[in-house]
Task: inverse folding
């Protein structure tokens, strides 16, 4: 593969091979293991252990810790994306940040493994968000760097499959390891090992020093604002992603507690694993197919719109039919919708990027639409579950929010 400096800013035209896609997908699996092992199981178990004596319920404590970590994520992803855009290292723009972020993430997970109270748990989770977002920003930016437009739905499909597989593997490791500390250690090892095949086997594109923008704190900071007036498609794509991700976050945040406290499931942790597996099987059945189909017909918006509608309907079903069988059906429907959404919406995002020099930063801004819901969801969910109607009201709100996101994709004008 070429590493000529000018190629770093060129619009890619040569299709990437299966080996490159497989290695990048594995790196995504690794990063998502580092996030979802804690989010699905380990943080909830620690919150339950630490809540007595704090004056907070386990729900509020978990919402507080994950919310603070999500605030860190909001800033970290675009920040490290912007730094990778400017990196002129011998090993390329993206690879140094992938290695440093994954290594830092593994160490941060070990901090969580040793947490003995709320403050260390929160600090450890903030460090995980900081470091893994550095790696994720670089991994994400590699796609518009290397993949031509009419292959991005397909590659986005494999990346989407990798991300949900990471959630399954992370949940499985956290559940099977036999304890909280062992679960974190298993996730840490996988996170670091999983990124190595990509950075060792595939040469990154280097940015020429002459193409690096002159440094100025003021211009660097101002670059994170993208005017909705000048870039309306970018703005509407961001809003669409934010709303659908917020809906999904509202569904997932208290899943363990929902199974335990509302459905009275005999083994709620196993229940989470079962629902995650059902969701994942359905997602894997559609995520690559949706991306390939979108590439072949050359259209994005219809796929994003109708997948969002399906997820909204499934979430509404969860609000009105609260049983274990209904939870399994909803998990399957959400998986089908999310599979199509993840692959095609990712391709749509890369199609609305303003310019090549800022791919990492701009994708980081778009990825804020993934992390901001992690801040908003706890703030909305905790009072709804505890004081304003419980889980029916929570999932009803999530359905409305997701439907709004599906409708607003029609406001994107210059991408079909």
Result:
């Amino acid at each position: 593969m070429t590493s000529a400096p000018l190629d770093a800013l060129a619009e890619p035209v040569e299709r990437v091979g299966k080996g490159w896609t497989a290695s990048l997908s594995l790196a995504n699996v690794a990063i998502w293991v580092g996030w979802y092992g804690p989010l699905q199981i380990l943080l909830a178990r620690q919150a339950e252990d630490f809540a007595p004596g704090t004056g907070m319920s386990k729900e509020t404590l978990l919402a507080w810790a994950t919310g603070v970590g999500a605030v860190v994520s909001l800033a970290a992803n675009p920040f490290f994306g912007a730094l990778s855009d400017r990196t002129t290292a011998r090993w390329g723009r993206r690879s140094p940040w992938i290695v440093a972020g994954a290594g830092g993430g593994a160490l941060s997970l070990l901090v969580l493994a040793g947490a003995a109270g709320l403050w260390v748990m929160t600090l450890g989770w903030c460090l995980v968000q900081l470091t893994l977002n550095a790696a994720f920003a670089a991994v994400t930016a590699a796609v518009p760097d290397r993949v031509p437009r009419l292959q991005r739905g397909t590659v986005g499909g494999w990346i989407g499959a990798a991300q949900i597989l990471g959630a399954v593997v992370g949940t499985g490791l956290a559940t099977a390891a036999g304890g909280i500390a062992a679960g974190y250690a298993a996730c840490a090892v996988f996170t670091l090992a999983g990124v190595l095949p990509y950075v060792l086997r595939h040469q990154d594109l280097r940015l020429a020093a002459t193409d690096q923008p002159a440094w100025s704190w003021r211009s660097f900071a101002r670059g994170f604002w993208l005017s909705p007036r000048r870039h309306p498609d970018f703005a509407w794509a961001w809003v669409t992603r934010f709303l659908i991700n917020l809906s999904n976050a509202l569904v997932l945040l208290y899943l363990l507690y929902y199974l335990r406290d509302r459905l009275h499931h005999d083994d709620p942790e196993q229940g989470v694993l079962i629902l995650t597996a059902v969701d994942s099987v359905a997602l894997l059945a559609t995520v690559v197919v949706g991306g390939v189909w979108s590439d072949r017909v050359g259209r994005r918006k219809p796929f994003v719109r109708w997948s969002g509608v399906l997820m909204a309907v499934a979430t509404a079903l969860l609000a009105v039919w609260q049983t274990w069988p209904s939870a399994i059906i909803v998990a399957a429907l959400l998986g089908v919708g999310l599979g199509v959404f993840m692959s095609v919406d990712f391709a749509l995002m890369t199609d609305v990027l303003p310019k090549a020099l800022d791919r990492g930063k701009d994708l980081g801004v778009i990825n804020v639409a993934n992390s901001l819901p992690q801040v908003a969801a706890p703030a909305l969910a905790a009072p709804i579950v505890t004081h304003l109607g419980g889980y029916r009201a929570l999932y009803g709100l999530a359905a409305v929010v997701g439907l709004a996101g599906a409708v607003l994709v029609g406001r994107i004008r210059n991408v079909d």
Remarks:
- Confidence is low (pLDDT under 50) at residues 1-6.
- The radius of gyration is 20 Å.
- Residues 325 and 331 are 10 Å apart (CA to CA).
- The first helix runs from residue 18 to 50.
